[in-house]
Amino acid sequence: MKSAQFNITVGLIFLLLAGGWSVRSYAMVEHRFARTYMSKDYLTNGIFTGGQSSTSSTSFSILGIRRIYAARQKIERVVVKLGDDKGHPLIDKVSYFHVAINDHLPRIEMDLSQTVASNVNEQKLKKIFLGSPYVKSAQINFDPTDMSMTIQLRLKKPVEAEVFELKRKNSAGKIVLDMKALSGRSARAS
Questions:
Q1: Cα–Cα distance list, 23 to 47, 51, 80, 175, 181 (Å)
Q2: What residues make up the domain containing 123?
Q3: Is the entire prediction scored with pTM above 0.85?
Q4: I want to staple 34 with a disulfide (CB 3.0 to 4.6 A). Which of 50, 60, 98, 152 is the partner?
């Protein structure tokens, strides 16, 4: 009996690997490393990673989040200002982050590793995104096990997004997320 189950399992694996069975996979998504400047390199579905993780026992914090909408360009910018574990600006540095853009659900999730504190709670976050042309709702969650924070933006419709980081010698590091409506080419590809 065990050998029959083993043979069936091996056969199914072979079919999947050989392409004999059609399975939709979301494992292959486009990945970009966040630049230190705006490049207008937008994604509709994929991930951006950037920053650096702490090599010591230091953790990070969110000092503030602001949203700006440029009506003429129809670009909404979200700026996350970063600090150290004591709430002081994180000078000339950006903590490690992972931003996933999902056009199927549609939403954007920003995971901030080793981030244990925030000056922005859920109520403030909802107020920040009130009146947003692209964001339907916003949540912020803290995972004490992973010592990370996740900012989740549920979108009104899929968008194109770009993420870059700003590091300056005299001010706090920032993660910048730009969103804009899908262009005709991107809308057809989705």
A1: 22, 34, 38, 35, 30
A2: 28-189
A3: no
A4: 50
